[in-house]
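Module 6 notes. Inverse folding takes a fixed backbone as the condition and produces residue identities as the prediction. Think of it as a translation problem where the source language is geometry and the target language is the twenty amino acids. Below is one complete input and output pair. Work through it position by position during the lab.
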């Protein structure tokens, strides 16, 4: 008889999320299997369904966690709110620090879009970006603050995506990606 207990786990939800993030980082979200994650956590194949229902529920939980972490990152811990450029740097830093979350967060076809935790976390992250845009002088925002927010998000997200997909390896080489991002914003917004 085996001594491995396959019916109880102290923090199954956390164990499954951690294992899922490892799989996504190594092989992408398409490689996720609840049965494999249960095996990795040492529980029955049905146990993860108690927390996530199915694969879509698991990916939605990862995205919600990611947007929450992103909101915290954009806000920072400083007494003064960071300016928009530094929020962009924090966005890039988040993507580099949490690449598996980042891969899942922006693939709506993988998620339950109406999930309340996901919706709330997205709103918190979006609010942090809007707060950075609101700090711009009127000349920097133009007539439409929403479009200024889209422009800022596009720059940070595009740079982070290119960086993570290794499409900037020849351009960035050994430079600090955060400093490269600061330089980019300086070139575009003087």
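Target side of the pair, the amino acids:
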């Amino acid at each position: 008889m085996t001594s491995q207990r396959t019916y109880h786990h102290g923090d199954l939800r956390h164990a499954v999320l951690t294992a899922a993030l490892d799989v996504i980082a190594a092989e992408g979200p398409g490689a996720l299997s609840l049965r494999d994650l249960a095996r990795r956590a040492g529980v029955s194949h049905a146990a993860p369904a108690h927390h996530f229902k199915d694969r879509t529920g698991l990916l939605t939980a990862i995205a919600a966690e990611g947007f929450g972490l992103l909101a915290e990152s954009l806000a920072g811990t400083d007494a003064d709110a960071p300016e928009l450029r530094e929020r962009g740097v924090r966005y890039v830093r988040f993507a580099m620090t949490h690449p598996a979350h980042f891969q899942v967060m922006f693939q709506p076809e993988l998620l339950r879009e109406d999930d309340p935790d996901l919706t709330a976390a997205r709103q918190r992250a979006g609010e942090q970006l809007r707060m950075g845009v609101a700090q711009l002088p009127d000349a920097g925002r133009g007539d439409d603050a929403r479009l200024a927010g889209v422009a800022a998000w596009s720059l940070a997200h595009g740079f982070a995506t290119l960086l993570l997909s290794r499409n900037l390896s020849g351009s960035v080489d050994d430079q600090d990606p955060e400093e490269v991002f600061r330089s980019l914003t300086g070139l575009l917004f003087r």
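Reference fact for the lab report: Confidence is low (pLDDT under 50) at residues 1-7.
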